[in-house]
Write a structure and sequence with these properties.
With 141 residues, the protein is an alpha/beta fold. 41% of the residues lie in helices and 23% in strands. The chain is built from six helices and five strands. A five-stranded parallel β-sheet has the order 3-2-1-4-5, sandwiched between helices. Helix 4 runs parallel beside helix 6.
Length: 141
């Protein structure tokens, strides 16, 4: 039997989106895999503008808990879920330095709303990790 692919899923405001859930189901159908959810504690709104980076921790933890329950309820194999650095690229790099992954799924808001897309996160994450990156555009939960 082949080993399970280890898939790192990076999302914040789109963590509970139906688009991301559909992408994870589609990935699970392609072959055995286990998901680890990483929720960067990226603040938004006034907290982002004021550079109060710890402001995103509480919201990230809420997304982490809700999404973990949803994925397990859907029968997906979830190894764990973590809150990461406020800088999403740093959060991905930190996680990939400590754990080996086979691929990466990055979920962002649509272009007009997404700070992560303006930072070109999917491409930069691929360059930084060497992993195949699947980009999912999700709706805000």
């Amino acid at each position: 039997m082949a080993d399970k692919a280890k898939v790192l899923v990076v999302a914040n405001r789109t963590a509970e989106s139906p688009e991301l859930l559909a992408a994870l189901h589609a990935r699970a159908v392609r072959g055995p895999c286990e998901f680890t959810l990483l929720v960067p504690s990226t603040p938004h709104g006034l907290a982002w503008a004021a550079n109060t980076y710890d402001a995103g921790n509480e919201e990230a933890e809420e997304h982490r808990t809700a999404f973990l329950e949803e994925l397990r309820g859907e029968g997906l194999d979830v190894a764990g879920a973590k809150v990461g650095d406020a800088d999403p690229l740093a959060a991905i790099s930190d996680e990939c330095n400590f754990t080996e992954y086979d691929e990466l799924i990055v979920s962002t808001l649509p272009l007009k709303l997404s700070k992560w897309l303006h930072l070109d996160l999917p491409r930069k994450a691929e360059a930084a990790t060497g992993l195949k990156v699947t980009h999912v555009v999700g709706s805000e939960a």
